[in-house]
Design goal:
This protein has 260 residues and is α/β, with parallel strands linked by helices. The chain has a single domain, classed as Rossmann fold, CATH 3.40.50.1360. The chain is built from 9 helices and 10 strands. The strands form 2 sheets. The protein has a 7-stranded parallel sheet, with helices on both faces. A 3-stranded antiparallel sheet has the order 4-8-7. α7 links the parallel β9 and β10. The two termini are 24 Å apart. Bound molecules: fructose -6-phosphate.
């Protein structure tokens, strides 16, 4: 795993945007895997700025989101579709028929999840997947003990995740208890993963993910097996990494190699 430690949230977001933008410029019809939550908001702001000021073109890009709350309609203010529309889609020139967020209202969830997987396959697979990380190590909504080979499916959220996400709802009872999420196996098939984390609250789980054993108890730890995973962390999220200095050294050396 490549580990990039940035000074702060802003620098983390800009570094992530630089990598996503490079993919979009090199492959204008690329397939982006997207995440919601607080972490990628700065990345989406920066991509919006690049679109507005530098003409970064999303007209042929296709997107697949990791997850959606079960039971929430796309126009519900706390749905992940709504989040994506407000934080990214409405600010850039992506045709809305090119965006895919799991549908939280489907009746036959099992068939729908198989269909979501098929749509990703038909699109040629995901070129770059943006990931945040939950306090319990989840990626997507793959909570602890999710199979590391799991596919898109309905997951029961842990009480902790419900509590963490209640900050976006009026009261905790309103937080859905289930979500449709890409599986760990689905995420592992993407060509590149960008794991973003900021803030002291993520420091312990980041250390477990990057330097701990690979375990279904911290599903993000399986990213150690991904052939092209870049973790972009701010100082606070990186604080508990034992090999922090080495990761910084690698980045300096790589930079030297590329400029020489
Ligand atoms: C959201 C998602 C989740 C979040 C994670 C971190 O689509 O897949 O795994 O990335 O819960 O959330 P924040 O960024 O709010 O700390």
């Amino acid at each position: 795993m490549r580990v990039i430690i940035t000074n702060d949230y802003d620098a983390m977001s800009k570094k992530a945007a630089e990598i996503v933008a490079k993919t979009v410029m090199e492959k204008p019809d690329c397939v982006l895997g997207l995440a919601t939550g607080s972490t990628p908001i700065g990345l989406y702001k920066e991509l919006t700025r690049m679109h507005k000021e530098q003409g970064l073109d999303f007209s042929k890009v296709r997107t697949f989101n990791l997850d959606e709350y079960h039971g929430l309609a796309p126009d519900h203010p706390q749905s992940y579709y709504y989040f994506m529309y407000e934080n990214l889609f409405k600010h850039i020139n992506i045709p809305l028929q090119n965006v895919n967020v799991p549908n939280g209202l489907v009746k036959d969830v099992k068939a729908y999840c198989a269909h979501y997987e098929e749509m990703i396959k038909q699109a040629g697979g995901i070129d770059i997947q943006v990931l945040g990380i939950g306090g319990d190590g989840h990626i997507g909504f793959n909570e602890p003990s999710s199979s590391l080979g799991s596919r898109t499916r309905l997951k029961t959220l842990t009480e902790q995740t419900v509590k963490d996400n209640s900050r976006f709802f009026k009261k905790i009872e309103d937080v859905p208890k289930f979500a449709i999420t890409m599986g760990v196996g689905t995420i592992m098939e993407t060509r590149k993963c960008l794991l973003l984390a900021n803030g002291a609250k993520k420091a312990k789980v980041v250390a477990q993910t990057v330097e701990g054993p690979i375990t279904a108890q911290v599903t993000a730890s399986v990213l150690q097996l991904h052939p092209d995973c870049v973790a972009i962390l701010d100082q606070e999220a990186a604080a508990k990494l034992e090999r922090k200095d080495y990761y910084a050294y690698v980045e300096r050396m790589t930079h030297q190699l590329t400029v020489e």
